[in-house]
Design a protein that fits this description.
The complex is a heterodimer of chains A (398) and B (521).
Chain A: H1 4-17, E1 18-21, E2 26-29, E3 44-50, H2 58-70, E4 75-79, H3 109-120, E5 125-129, H4 161-175, E6 182-184, H5 193-197, H6 199-207, H7 212-229, E7 233-237, H8 238-244, E8 253-256, H9 262-268, E9 272-275, H10 278-281, H11 290-295, H12 305-308, E10 311-318, H13 328-332, H14 335-344, H15 347-352, H16 355-372
Parallel strand pairs in A: 3-4, 3-10, 4-5, 6-7, 7-8, 8-9, 9-10
Antiparallel strand pairs in A: 1-2
Chain B: H1 3-14, E1 31-33, E2 37-48, H2 60-73, E3 87-95, E4 110-114, E5 122-127, H3 130-143, E6 144-146, E7 153-158, E8 160-164, E9 170-176, H4 184-196, E10 201-205, H5 235-246, E11 251-255, H6 287-301, E12 308-310, H7 319-323, H8 325-333, H9 338-355, E13 359-363, H10 364-370, E14 379-382, H11 389-394, E15 398-401, H12 404-407, H13 416-421, H14 431-435, E16 437-444, H15 454-458, H16 461-470, H17 481-496
Parallel strand pairs in B: 2-3, 3-5, 9-10, 9-16, 10-11, 12-13, 13-14, 14-15, 15-16
Antiparallel strand pairs in B: 1-8, 2-7, 4-5, 4-8, 6-7
Helix pairs in contact in B: 2-3, 4-5, 6-9
The chains are: A alpha/beta (398), B alpha/beta (521).
């Protein structure tokens, strides 16, 4: 391999060639000799975890990282904070984690570093997200000044310098923890009503002749600059592109989620794209069976090869509204594995397979392998995700 | 002043507070008293055994202590600066007997003291056996928590004086590896989680009609009945499980259910079936059937060291016996009807088990049909309903309670409150007879259970039963509302330790309804 990370992938493949012989009680490799040459189609193959809707203990995050390495996923997108809770320690603004659900549902700075190094050892990047200006209600628990008002608590107060001081503090602290080149700044689902309704914010808008839409753009771009000053490439959810794509910093990576057909528009404008079309790659949507996950194609609608290179890859998203320690792994697997093959394997190899025979058999085998390795991957052929097996039976047919 | 006297005065001065809600322990110990001081546990906490007769040759304590430290830290870096005072440097464990073999009715009692005075300050555990000490370490781990502000491991409400012992010696959980194969990692995870609530018997229902996953060296074709080539347990796998459990104070009760629930045996040996078109129960007329049972039990006796073996005997549908000519003929020749034959089968299997040194457990139908003919040492395993145990003990036999309306985990509509309130001694007032109820068991039948959902179906409801089986009646809440927040915090502790325990609210293994803190779900 050219790098140790290639070698790590090679070891994983080797481990899947090995089977335990129940008669001789040896570990064997069958059908030798093997010659395998491998490399990923996309460089960014992500899984997103949401630790704000429910706190996930460090042990659980470690287990998720382990399971990612089994299917060669290589970016853990850590959606740390959202409106419901703020679990991470921020030394510059130590009251922020008062927004955690409870004193024990928290991550220290060392916890975060530990997660990053645990992932690195498995060849997995950690991309942190600080979603602004929406999805940030929990910030005000420690610093109520960040809210437009006590009765109107999101988005973050665009008119206040303090807001950007806090963002700068958070990002500076995070720069010491998260070495990955990309940093996610969110920017989705921004409901600007509170900006109009709160007098001092409305006044600020009027003074600058801004609509709330202008203020949204202003906020996102200003946050981007803070990240860029810290030597990061900003990633933003697609609304930022849909609303003011031409103004985004040209380094921006646009994160598609609303639907299909977005990345073609993004790359046509010369920006890079990550695909997470919610119709197929949102794992909290339990009614998306593995076949739909598998057949989703990040390059759909993009024929120009130069533009194709702007699609960094894709990401399956494990939103946490109904996912906590008790059910997160069985919601992620095995469907994330279907996406993992779509993002790693060559298109010709994928297209040559038949879904209901060759792919299904291999996915069955992989799901049972995950179970053997202690990962609670759900039955493959259930229509709804994370349902129990319908009745007694072999792992390989459920 | 003598140190002991000083210690005593310290306790008296601080006074004791037994308000159950300040005590965040599960299951609730026999007696607990505590104070109001906060202590910290040193980063380099050590274990000592000064005064022990037991030498820990098998490193049972040493490994348990290390596991306990890991559990207390929960992956956080406890690297805050050690305070100069109020710092516990470690735990001294005094084990009074040298016994290190786990067995039925081994002494599991312990005393745990966390003083606020002493130089150096350390917690003290005293137990008759190492297995009592293991329980003490579990309790100690629940007193400690990681403090996010100081990055230290804190211990509140010291000093603590805990004296504890279980109410019942048999506190079981059944797992079913025939309806679905459970990988070894899954089984070990279940064993670890059992120790957190002090359950001590893993009832391994290994084989049933759907699959035969375990290696039987005497009859090597039996595991052809496994679901697939890799959904199997070798004998070394089984030994590994037994050892893993024993090191944690958990006994493993193996079950080989006969004559019903045994269709999978015939995949390797079709002569065990009455006929090819009528495949259960096992052929009672064929001596080979009993040879195979003997082989199985002989192989078991080398691996499963618990003094009991479970021989099943439930849900025996005998129609294939009357419908298959050669069996019908055998019945006639022996002047038996099918009920006689059922009884004959069970008793003959019992004798085989006894010849291999086991005492036998059978499901309650055997008692309901011919209780007076069962071996006198038989333990009857109640499951059908809630009024069987009184009849069993009145007949002088021992009993294990698992009434399905309350303690079957696969019944998703059985609530944790129902688990908590199910009283094994209900209807039994005579103290002699009460002693014959050796305990109870919650059952995780596997029809819809595999590695993907077993943990959230077992927990937290099994923990509710675990307190009913461990704690004395005085410590068990009469109104479940007063136990709700304590169980909720225990569930969150399980989650923190990586056990996928489901939310309390709603039916078994529901997903959390909405975002929120762990304790409110």
């Amino acid at each position: 391999a050219n790098t140790i990370y290639g070698a790590i992938r090679g070891l994983e493949t080797f481990s899947q060639l090995c089977v335990f012989n129940y008669d001789t009680k040896n570990v064997e490799v069958r059908y030798a000799p093997w010659y395998i040459q491998d490399e990923p189609r996309f460089a960014f193959r992500g899984l997103m975890l949401d630790t704000s809707r429910h706190y996930l203990p460090v042990d659980v995050i470690k287990q998720v990282i382990d399971s990612m390495s089994f299917s060669k996923l290589n970016v853990l997108h850590w959606h740390i904070i959202d409106e419901q809770s703020f679990p991470l320690e921020i030394p510059s603004y130590p009251n922020l984690w008062k927004g955690s659900y409870s004193k024990s549902e928290r991550y220290t700075v060392e916890d975060a570093r530990y997660i990053v190094s645990y992932a690195k050892k498995r060849g997995i990047h950690v991309m942190a997200e600080i979603d602004v200006p929406g999805h940030a209600e929990s910030w005000g628990n420690g610093y109520p000044k960040l809210w437009p008002s006590l009765s109107c608590t999101e988005p973050l107060d665009v008119s206040s310098n303090f807001t950007f001081e806090v963002i700068t503090g958070i990002l500076s602290d995070m720069r010491k923890i998260f070495p990955f080149g990309l940093f996610h700044l969110g920017g989705d689902e921004v409901y600007t009503g509170c900006w109009n309704l709160t007098p001092h914010v409305k006044q600020w808008l009027d003074e600058r002749n801004m609509t709330t839409k202008d203020a949204y753009k202003y906020f996102v771009l200003k946050a981007q600059e803070i990240a860029i000053d810290l030597n990061w490439i900003p990633v933003n959810w697609e609304e930022t592109f849909n609303s003011f794509g031409g103004s985004l910093n040209p380094r921006t990576v646009v994160h598609n989620w609303l639907g299909p057909g977005v990345c073609p528009k993004v790359v046509a404008k010369g920006l890079r794209c990550i695909m997470s079309n919610q119709g197929v790659w949102y794992l909290d949507h339990l009614d998306v069976p593995w076949e739909q996950v598998y057949t989703a194609e990040p390059l759909a609608g993009i024929d120009d090869t130069a533009q194709q290179k702007l699609v960094l890859g894709g990401e399956v998203c494990m939103w946490g509204e109904t996912a906590d320690t008790s059910d997160v792994q069985q919601t992620i697997w095995p469907r994330a594995a279907a996406a993992a093959e779509r993002m790693w394997s060559q298109l010709e190899a994928i297209s040559a397979q038949d879904l209901e025979t060759t792919v299904l058999a291999r996915l069955h085998y992989f799901r049972c392998l995950l179970n053997h390795r202690g990962i609670a991957a759900a039955p493959v052929t259930n229509f709804y995700a994370r349902r129990p097996p319908i009745g007694p039976g072999s792992c390989f047919v459920q | 002043m003598a140190p002991a006297l000083r210690l005593l005065l310290a306790f008296l001065a601080i006074g004791s507070c037994t308000a159950a809600d300040h005590v965040d322990l599960w299951p609730m110990p026999k007696t607990v008293s505590h104070g109001t001081q906060r202590l910290y546990v040193s980063n380099n906490a050590t274990m000592s055994m000064a005064g022990s007769k037991y030498s820990d040759g098998k490193a049972i304590l040493k490994d348990a202590f290390q596991r306990m430290l890991d559990l207390m830290k929960l992956n956080h870096n406890a690297d805050g600066a050690n305070p100069s005072s109020s710092l516990l440097t470690g735990v001294n464990i005094v084990v009074l007997s040298t016994q290190d073999e786990l067995g039925f009715e081994v002494d599991e009692s312990y005393n745990l003291t966390v003083p606020t005075i002493g130089e150096p300050l350390h917690a003290q555990i005293e137990a008759q056996t190492v297995f009592g000490a293991l329980h003490a370490l579990q309790t100690f781990s629940q007193l400690c928590h990681f403090e996010f502000t100081s990055r230290l491991i804190g211990l509140n409400s010291a000093p603590w004086m805990i004296s504890d012992a279980p109410r019942f010696p048999y506190r079981g959980l059944l797992i079913d590896t025939s309806r679905h194969y459970l990988p070894l990692a899954t089984i070990k995870g279940v064993i670890d989680a059992m120790t957190y609530s002090k359950l001590n018997v893993l009832h391994w229902h290994i084989v049933d009609e759907q699959s035969f996953p375990i290696e039987i060296p005497s009859y090597p074709k039996l595991w052809n009945g496994s679901y697939s080539y890799s959904e199997r347990y070798t004998m070394p796998d089984a030994i590994d499980i037994v050892r893993y459990a024993e090191k944690r104070g958990v006994n493993v009760l193996a079950e080989i259910d006969v004559p019903g629930h045994a269709r999978s045996w015939g995949v390797g040996y079709p002569e065990l079936w009455p006929s090819d078109s009528c495949r259960e129960p096992l052929d009672v007329s064929n001596n080979f059937t009993f040879k195979v049972i003997d082989g199985i039990l002989s192989d078991f006796s080398k691996v499963f060291k618990f003094k009991f073996v479970h021989l099943g005997g439930d849900e025996v549908n005998t129609s294939c016996w009357t419908e298959t000519p050669h069996i019908k003929e055998w019945l006639n020749n022996n002047h038996m009807n099918v009920s006689d034959a059922y009884r004959y089968f069970v008793l003959r299997a019992q004798k085989i088990a006894i010849s291999h040194g086991y005492e036998v457990i059978n499901w309650e139908e055997t008692f309901n049909n011919f209780g007076d003919k069962l071996d006198r040492k038989t333990v009857v395993h109640n499951w059908l309903g809630g009024d069987v145990a009184p009849k069993v003990v009145a007949a002088g036999l021992r009993c294990i309670v698992s009434n399905q309306d309350k303690w079957y985990l696969d019944h998703l509509d059985a609530t944790w409150e129902g688990f908590y309130l199910n009283e094994p001694l209900k209807g039994i007032n005579n103290t002699e007879q009460q002693r014959l109820v050796i305990g109870g068991e919650v059952c995780m039948w596997g029809e819809q259970i595999d590695a993907s959902d077993i943990e959230q179906t077992i927990w937290p409801r099994a923990a509710a039963a675990a307190e009913r089986l461990w704690s004395p009646l005085e410590q068990i809440a009469e109104d479940t509302r007063s136990a709700t927040s304590r169980l909720s915090r225990f569930r969150c502790l399980l989650n923190q330790r990586g056990v996928a325990a489901a939310p309390l609210a709603g039916n078994g293994r529901t997903a959390p309804y909405e975002p929120g803190p762990c304790v409110r779900q």
